[in-house]
Specification:
It contains ten helices and 15 strands. The chain is an alpha/beta fold.
């Protein structure tokens, strides 16, 4: 499987139980490294960052082919967690233009990949043209970026139609429960799934932190329990890691339930260390047993 991951990377200042660290963040960072460490060697990350941060980004994504897309300034965010309740965080971000343009050259490159994974943090990071021109590919969209705007340092959700219009083009959509409820306007989980399915979405994964995850695959529903971490060190990127692990699991298992359990184990293991998931496929299979 050849996988391309597109989106901005960030400078993340993260505080967990009062301990502060500065490191790279952003969906491409967590997804690309998780895919690589789970045995997918052919991963390319198309990432926006400033020219000054170019070598730093490549060093942080060691082992992944990086296609740097220069922008004036790298996104910067401040995150704060408590290990007692990792499902809740505060998040402040300084938003700058970090748009990836769907040039003819880039579209032609993306034709060579089996999966194209979009990881926007803001509504303007990934233009609609990517979805329409690549609709025949396996397209994956992760998280809230399509309907997120940066206002006064905060993530503001609005214009859910931004994501609704791309649903028919996707193979998989990953949202957490609050995001899925916002877009659908529903609170009953099965009504949420019905909303997205009726608008052309093939497959949807709804994550719910320590409460597990929910798979709407075709017309079937699967409830996946969360696995208990041995300890919680860094919850950042757990949802992105789940996405990467689920896509990898589609090559390992035919049953969606098995795919979901594999992804849940990897996401749990990612909580136990700082940064992107760094263990191997064998470690996951052993833990899964």
């Amino acid at each position: 499987m050849r996988a391309a991951v597109l989106g901005p990377v960030c400078r993340d200042l993260t505080t967990i139980d009062g301990l502060q660290t500065l490191h790279i963040g952003g969906i491409p960072y967590y997804v690309a490294l998780a895919l690589r460490n789970l045995g997918e060697s052919d991963v390319t990350a198309y990432v926006t960052a400033s020219e000054a941060d170019s070598e730093w980004v490549k060093a942080c994504l060691s082992g992944v082919e990086v296609k740097h897309i220069p922008v004036e300034k790298t996104l910067e965010s401040i995150l704060e967690y408590s290990s007692k309740n990792p499902d809740v965080r505060t998040h402040h971000i300084d938003a700058y233009p970090n748009t990836i343009l769907p040039t003819g050259e880039l579209i032609a490159e993306l034709e060579n990949f089996d999966y194209v994974i979009f990881g926007p943090l803001f509504h303007d990071n990934i233009p609609l043209e990517f979805f329409t021109r690549l609709k025949h590919k396996n397209l994956v969209l992760g998280n809230f970026g399509m309907f997120t705007y940066g206002e006064k340092g905060e993530f503001v959700r609005k214009s859910p139609e931004n994501i609704v219009q791309v649903l028919p083009f996707l193979r998989y959509l990953f949202l957490d429960r609050s995001e899925a409820e916002f877009v659908s306007g529903k609170t009953d989980l099965h009504e949420v799934g019905k909303f997205f399915r009726e608008r052309g979405l093939q497959n949807m994964i709804v994550t719910e932190g320590s409460k597990g995850s929910h798979l709407f695959i075709g017309g079937e529903y699967y409830k996946i329990p969360a696995f208990t971490p041995e300890r919680i060190v860094d919850p950042t990127g757990a949802g992105d890691t789940y996405l990467a692990a689920f896509i990898r699991a589609t090559e390992l298992f035919t049953n969606p339930g098995q795919q979901g359990r594999f992804a849940a184990v990897v996401a749990t293991m990612s909580l136990e260390k700082v940064g992107a998931f760094a263990e191997g496929l064998g470690d996951v299979l052993k833990r899964l047993k």
